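SEQUENCE-TO-STRUCTURE ENTRY
===========================
What this section holds: a protein sequence and its matching fold, both as plain text.
Tokens: labelled as protein backbone structure tokens, with as many entries as the chain has residues.
Question of interest: how does this chain fold, as expressed in backbone structure tokens?
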Amino acid sequence: MLKPVQVIAILIAAIASLTAGYYFAQTDSSQTKKSNQLTVTQRPDFSLYDLEDQLRHINEWNGQVVMVNFWATWCPPCRSEMPAFEKLYTDYKDKGFTIVGIAVDNKQSVIDFVDPLGIDYPILMGEEKGIQLAKDFGNHLGALPYTVIINRKGQVTHLLRKELNYQEAEALISPLI
């Protein structure tokens, strides 16, 4: 049985941990808001190879609304949102919208995952370069999935560090189309 002094020490440690966690969550939230509004305004310039080993450049989608999604096959929320993204792409691609998936994974795993799903939007192989690119887009924590919405002028309008469903993603892109 624990002595009263030990119980008090455990309670103080738990309270300190919760307070620190809350503080860092609030600090991260304010930094994210700052990066949404101040530091990330124009999309970074980049080129990556697709699954057919063709070099693709972000300028290829100039003038379109672009959703850039950083993901990996080992990330359950990433895998979960991809069918919704494929439907969104199919529904809006004729209206000047595209999705660019950037896999931070190995190529064979990516092919084995996307082929059975019939993913038609471009999938680029980011690997380590993709991790740096995600940081360039404001993902300093390295969270996955990480989604960036870019308007027709090439300006970043949204940075999202969470799984998205069809309705959430549609609500973000609809005003831009």
About this structure: The longest helix spans residues 4-39. The chain is about 45% helix and 20% strand.
